[in-house]
């Protein structure tokens, strides 16, 4: 299949353009050269990365291009510089901007972020770190079979994009890795994430402002947190989050502070998850800039259906909503969560809704 793919399209091999898979030689220019040729091609193009470890500094693959069918076929590994300061002050390590019809198939992206995490843990002055793979203002994107290891910051970011499909993606980083969200989606629509495994020190999938029509199915999360809808309400006027479906996943909710509505969490298995079901509008990171403030975000029409498993905290269901904008139309259907083989607890504040079927702990809505 690979041979037929390569034969059918314009092929640009980074090794033929000066790239060396020795893990030491900077191959950035070879990748940029391959991109320039592929982007200028009027026919579909393939950029091929053979086996080996290709050292890559921060790079931007920018469009628009003359064709809308460019495939990165990665047999080897792209590796970030071992000195985190080289790319640590860049927003992104590998970035795609203003492109259409880009596919990334296979390969390993090694962000080599462990030394930066250690720097942050020691309280030293460190760069923020770079996101491993970023797509911005782009359409018709496919990512399949990619493995992201040890990103300095977020692993994959989808920002301002439409029609994105990610499947069979694997993300791996230490449980002690800070701010290493697996996949972050914001200001984007028609995004699908399927059949993936994400283990990192922060959110498995984080959903930011302006996200709509997001489908997440059969994603295994852990360790770290689960799927979060958060970082809302930072700006007085911002887009909300709507039409999100999460099916057959291991999930933990996170703070949400715009609007968030039409959210469905369905067929989820929790395994020793902290606060498996939570809406926390009084969340205040590091108690800075927000203690005592009332959230202005309206949360409504959130359904939790067929959620089973175990909680690592006694309070398994927590709805701590805003007194100014109470949560409304929260639905609990067929939920069973336990804590240390005992009945867990539920806590509600300024939340209204309904329950149906077996709901354990007993609904406080």
TrEMBL record:
Keyword terms: Cell wall, Cell wall biogenesis/degradation, Glycosidase, Hydrolase, Secreted
One Gene Ontology term from the biological process aspect of the record: carbohydrate metabolic process
Active site residues of this protein: 225
PROSITE patterns to which the protein is assigned, alphabetical: POLYGALACTURONASE
UniProt GO MF annotations: polygalacturonase activity
A Pfam family annotated for this UniProt entry: Glyco_hydro_28
Presence of keyword Secreted: yes
Location relative to the cell: Secreted, Cell wall
Domain of life: Eukaryota
UniProt xrefs under InterPro entries: Glyco_hydro_28, Pectin_lyas_fold, Pectin_lyase_fold/virulence
UniProt xrefs under Gene3D superfamilies: Single-stranded right-handed beta-helix, Pectin lyase-like
Family that this chain belongs to: Belongs to the glycosyl hydrolase 28 family.
Name of the protein in question: Polygalacturonase-like
Protein species of origin: Prunus yedoensis var. nudiflora
